[in-house]
């Protein structure tokens, strides 16, 4: 029965108006809402603030990394789970909360680093690379992306070099980096933070002319951070319908198809969501699906976004607004052809 409805969902999402507006079958919408309601779990960690979660499984244990908590000196939070259901924050032996990135490079504003959106990937030699965003001393109003390494998955991670990995302030800086290993060829995908140059409105980019916020793919060496080859633009926002924002890109490959997950809309509004696009080549072109995978109202969620997806495409973690913060939520995924569904 589920396969029938997945097929129906695929058919419904492929029908579009000439201008690109989706034609959505009401039965498909009802089934998607039912699946979402049944499958989404959370808030986890007793509702603790845990934004922009990233996950990795090492030796059967799940590790989640998250943006700092406002008011805390912790730069990168860490939580663990043995079953993907029950999660616990990681604490040090002295009872203090563990910080995966206790030391910062010289390019970061030390007093107010505003460390955001981490991602951790395992390297060929068994060590780990951490990508993170932080405020730059060149312009404290903007972020750049850095990399750090560790032999231990929870760190502490040591920053790589004295310069950011991605930091073009002329286009707004960079945030939300995530690694991707495509059969030995490594990449980093990230967001050009163009809305930091915007003219105002939600997330500074709903007053025209809108700034671009492209999602960029950069090939890197086996160390996870040395750039090799040319960067490629994968996707950009569709104007005011996206609040002038695409962000939080995550790239996976399942059965020969590349899936680019991302959030659109301003994270401070109910427009924030999780969506995806697909391609037959890692560099695209990517075809964006017509409807969000997760949005406000699904399972009672408010502004779900900042997601990460397992490399096998069967699990997703994300945050959603909860009690004044952004809490951790989880769900299962089912991928059929080029269609992703909460399962």
Automatic annotation (TrEMBL):
<dbReference type="InterPro" id="IPR051795">
    <property type="entry name" value="Glycosyl_Hydrlase_43"/>
</dbReference>
<dbReference type="InterPro" id="IPR006710">
    <property type="entry name" value="Glyco_hydro_43"/>
</dbReference>
<keyword id="KW-0732">Signal</keyword>
<protein>
    <recommendedName>
        <fullName>Glycoside hydrolase family 43 protein</fullName>
    </recommendedName>
</protein>
<feature type="signal peptide">
    <location>
        <begin position="1"/>
        <end position="20"/>
    </location>
</feature>
<keyword id="KW-0326">Glycosidase</keyword>
<dbReference type="Pfam" id="PF04616">
    <property type="entry name" value="Glyco_hydro_43"/>
</dbReference>
<comment type="similarity">
    <text>Belongs to the glycosyl hydrolase 43 family.</text>
</comment>
<keyword id="KW-0378">Hydrolase</keyword>
<dbReference type="InterPro" id="IPR023296">
    <property type="entry name" value="Glyco_hydro_beta-prop_sf"/>
</dbReference>
């Amino acid at each position: 029965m589920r396969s029938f409805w997945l097929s129906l969902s695929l058919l419904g999402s492929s029908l579009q108006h000439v201008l690109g507006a989706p034609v959505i079958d009401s039965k498909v919408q009802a089934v998607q809402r039912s699946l979402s309601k049944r499958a989404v779990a959370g808030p986890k960690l007793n509702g603790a603030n845990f934004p922009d979660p990233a996950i990795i499984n090492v030796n059967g244990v799940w590790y989640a990394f998250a943006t700092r908590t406002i008011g805390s000196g912790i730069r990168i939070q860490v939580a663990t789970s043995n079953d993907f259901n029950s999660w616990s924050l990681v604490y040090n032996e002295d009872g203090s909360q563990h910080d995966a990135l206790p030391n910062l490079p010289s390019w970061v504003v030390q007093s107010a680093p505003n460390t955001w959106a981490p991602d951790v990937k395992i390297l060929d030699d068994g060590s780990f690379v951490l990508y993170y965003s932080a405020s730059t001393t060149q312009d404290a109003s903007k972020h750049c992306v850095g990399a750090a390494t560790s032999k231990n998955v929870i760190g502490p991670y040591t920053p790589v070099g004295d310069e950011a990995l991605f930091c073009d302030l002329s286009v707004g800086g960079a945030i939300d980096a995530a690694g991707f290993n495509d059969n030995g060829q490594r990449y980093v995908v990230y967001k050009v933070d163009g809305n930091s140059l915007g003219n105002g409105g939600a997330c500074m980019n709903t007053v025209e002319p809108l700034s671009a916020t492209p999602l960029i793919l950069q090939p890197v060496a086996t160390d996870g951070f040395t750039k090799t080859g040319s960067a490629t633009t994968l996707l950009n926002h569709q104007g005011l319908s996206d609040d002038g924002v695409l962000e939080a890109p995550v790239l996976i490959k399942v059965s020969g198809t590349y899936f680019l997950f991302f959030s659109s809309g301003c994270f401070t509004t109910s427009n924030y969501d999780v969506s995806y696009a697909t391609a037959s080549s890692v560099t695209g072109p990517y075809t964006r699906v017509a409807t969000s995978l997760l949005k406000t109202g699904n399972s009672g969620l408010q502004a779900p976004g900042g997601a990460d997806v397992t490399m096998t495409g069967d699990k997703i973690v994300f945050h959603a607004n909860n009690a004044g913060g952004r809490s951790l939520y989880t769900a299962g995924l089912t991928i059929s052809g080029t269609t992703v569904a909460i399962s």
